[in-house]
Amino acid sequence: MLTVDTIECHYGQQPVLRGLSFTVQPGEICCLLGPSGCGKTTALRAIAGFQPLHQGSISLGGQILSDSGTMLPPEQRQIGMVFQDYALFPHLSVRDNIAFGLHRQSRAKQDETVEQLLSLTRLQDNADRYPQQLSGGQQQRVALARALAPQPKLLLLDEPFSNLDVELRRHLNLEVKDILKTLGTSAILVTHDQQEAFAFGDRIGLVHHGALQQWGTPYHLYHQPNNRFVANFIGSGKLIAATAIDTHSVDTELGPINGTSPHRAPAGKPLEILLRPSDIVLDNDSIITATVTKKMFLGASTHYHLTLPSGTVIESLLRSHHDFPLGERLRVSATPPQLIVFAQENVRGNSSGN
Questions:
Q1: Is residue 349 very low, low, confident or very high in pLDDT (cuts 50, 70, 90)?
Q2: C-alpha dihedral over 333, 338, 343, 349, to 10 degrees?
Q3: Is the pTM of this model over 0.70?
Q4: Comparing C-alpha atoms, which of 354, 335, 341 is closest to residue 224?
Q5: N or C end of the chain: which has fewer CB within 10 A?
């Protein structure tokens, strides 16, 4: 449905996006994820028609929206947008805010569309109220309904939950996703919050310094990162020194570690292996011990920082009925389902993830 093809955007002489490419399928919900200043909002503005392209092209349903010589105005793109600050009209009621972009429709059609969206967003009881009379979550649903009212081919959401408290953000994240799936509307969410992206997106694009580092499902970004940046940014974990034994195993200070997928490094090559907290397990038969140096109780589980005799720190997520005190030594082993390895940049025993 949407094709973003090797686009570049500049602010003055400064390149902000560098060869960014991805596609969005009909009904698919995608996220552009990355740290502040990485270029993800610029990409959204380029798709919406607020930012010209220096190179590349953007097309929707086969129609060119932007290229180096074309820039279709935002109002002609059949794209809706939900802003971070909602941008509601304070002098209009909820009902009139939703109907704002429907002036070309008959009154009967406008009323039908507004009533459908009031019901879908559970705003029927607030239809005649004004934005300042609503909670943040209700205002966000009004902004969503207004953007959806003209039936756009694509909806863009620019960090729409960032002004809300944590619990409301989580609730609205899932609620908005359900609404979009019900309508079959394609969407792109921009966020710096990976948990938000994981919960919301069918596919995620991780952006760094204006370039797309990886485009894939949350599962693939977490379990099959393309590069060291993706491995460090997504989830938590530690990179520790390793040496290739064969294509399916490496040797580490935790002992030999085997994986189901090949890593393609020749025997004897110095590597670093990514170990997620779920990879480190208690093992009474292990000869490897690690000392509890930090712990964080999370309810159903506890997140431990464990220090190996060499000083290397690893992380482990254990069921919370265990309650190991600081300083306790635990027997552990590493059981990753697959090996995530990178060429060793330098000799370092302890390299933190996110």
A1: very low
A2: -20
A3: yes
A4: 341
A5: C
Residue-wise pLDDT for 232-263, tens only, equals 999 888 999 999 999 889 999 999 999 887 88
C-alpha angle 120-123-124 in degrees, rounded to nearest 5: 95
Closest CA to 253 of 154, 333, 135: 333
User: Interhelix angle for 136-148 vs 107-120, to 10°?
Assistant: 140
- Look up tokens 């004004």; give the residue: 130
The pair of structure tokens assigned to 61 is 């349903």
Please spell the DSSP secondary structure of 43-68, one letter per residue: HHHHHHTSS--SEEEEEETTEEEEET
For residue 321, give both structure tokens: 């009925």
Distance CA 72, CA 85 (A): 25
CB atoms within 10 A of CB 111: 14
Residues 93-126: tens digit of each pLDDT: 999 999 998 988 888 999 999 999 999 999 999 9
Label residue 348 by pLDDT band (50, 70, 90): very low
The amino acid sitting at 239 is L
Q: What sign does the dihedral 91-94-100-106 (CA atoms) show?
A: negative
Instruction: Tokens for 95, please give them.
Output: 């009902």
Type of residue at 158:
D
Residues in the chain: 354
